[in-house]
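Batch manifest, entry 17 of 40.
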Amino acid sequence: MRVLVVGGGIAGSAVALAVANLGMQATLVERRGAHDPNEGSWITVAPNGLDALAALGVLDRARAIGHPTVTNRMYGATGRHLGDVSLGVPLEDGSVALTMKRSALAALLTQAAAEAGAELRFGTRCDAMSDDGHSVSFTLGDGSTLAGDVLVGADGVRSTVRTRLDAAAPTARYVGLTNFGGITPGSRLAAELTPQAWHFVFGRRCFFGAHPLSTGEVVWFANVPRAEITRAERTATSAERWLAWLGTLASEDAGPAAELLATGRLELAGDNTHDLAHVPTWWRGATVLIGDAAHAPSPSSGQGAAMALEDAVVLSRCLAQDPRRALAAYEQKRRERVEAIVRAGARSSSAKIPGQVGRVVQEAMLRVVFASGLAARSTNAITAHRLAEEVCL
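Output type: structure tokens
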């Protein structure tokens, strides 16, 4: 069986690796160049995502690029501690979540896929696709054609494969938050903040997160409620101006934000955050969607990468066990779980934009939620999921 994959991010690289591990041929096409492991933002891969990395055979390699993360510590704008929530149920060997560069994880997966025998074509555009129900093909930018048995759309929240699969497919929804990420080297806060923890501040005008690393750096992000940032605004705004603006937004809040922004550097600027709650058609004929192309949770869920990794493992197993029923079995296994996580992520995003009046009420409610253990139970229910015994029959 030959599997054609459109999209070379975490989802596409993971499925190319997964099917290659199971003895199938895989060809991945990505319009951008090969991943730079040092660019872009940081993500945290929860224990269920680590379980998927173990199934892919690369967990030890992921540990080498990641930083253990055990707890999310929550604070209000005045500095009041609202509560702590663990990152979920550790693996049997005690492994907790890992915080790492998104691009570094993608680069690791593409390298592992190549080593497993997958063909990777970066910097190659996919211009046209065809699917007769039994075989698939696509035409590349240079006019050449690739043929296979299954086509996997792993091309993200703005998926071209999704719209070609179903012209009436929904588009991504802007969740009302713009995202910025950066790093501050040599900060005293690297030693003062709780180790192996994200420090979250529900600020008056932005939501801020900071994580100290054992290297003496602090990585951070800011979510700002506002209208979507246009391409023109992004192009016209320098990193220095963005940082100054973020510093102004965080200036009234207690916590580490103002200091980290004043001495840090941006690595991600002006990213509009989206989700994709319900896509009616995940597959048709021999074409199937995975990852954000099928179900994109907002970044607030903390599950985007983990869901893509789980998808890749489940789809590859279904293809290996029963190719005729594989795509239907994959959807049956995955839809309920991922759509519930997208809904939970949407609720988390709305908690970051309560407005000035709602802030006091929100902090009181969050203290009750954290003290009751409701947030911990919800996190544990998601992160306790394990793939070891799943079959696709």
